[in-house]
Every structure is written in C-alpha cells, then in structure tokens.
Amino acid sequence: MSWGALSEPEWRVLRGLLPIYAKDRGCGRRPEQNRSIINGILWRLRCGTPWRGVPPKYGNWNTIYRRFRRWSEAGVWEAFSVTLAEIMVESGHYSIDSITVRVHVSAAGGKGESSTRS
To answer: How far apart are CA 58 and CA 37, in angstroms?
Structure first.
C-alpha cells in the first residue's frame, strides 16, 4: 500500500469486503465514495493525528470517523487485515517492522549486575 492512497488492485480487493447498503438510503455519503473515506482513515492511522486533523481532500472528518467506528464494530477492519495478510502470503510479499529501543545500562545487564542469577 502506498503512502498516499489505495492502488487500483488494493481497492478492488477491499471494495468487496465493505458492507452493502440499500441504494435508497437517506442522507450521508454514498457507498461509491468509500475509497476516499478509506484513504482518509488510513491517512489518520498512519499519522496518528486527531480525527479533526484529517485533510479535507478525504472528506468531512466526522463522516470518516463515524464510518471507521461503524466498520470497526461490524468487523470490517478485521476482515481487511485477514484478507490482506492472506494475499501477502500467497504472493510472497511480507512486511516486517521492527523497532530498536535502547535501555539504561543497568536494565540491559551492564556493569554492576552479575551475568548469572541464583
């Protein structure tokens, strides 16, 4: 997945996992605009900003937040994760993230602490 937005193949996979809503719904964003909303959600999750900080190009922040919350409660994000993980395994693409955290020398077993414990 690119930093900016979902690619066309990514969108084709995820689009099929979204809940289907009646065409005669009332107000609110139409399901056709889900791609922009997902891009806004992903942007917010990557950056860690408050929901109000989501750029307007993705839509209204409140709409994006409410859709995220509704999809989370419905298990849509879990389905996204499982499906994308399965696709990555099948295609041989893996993403491993690691973080190195340095600790104080006494916490790392440095001088002053014996290497064997009794």
So the answer is: 6
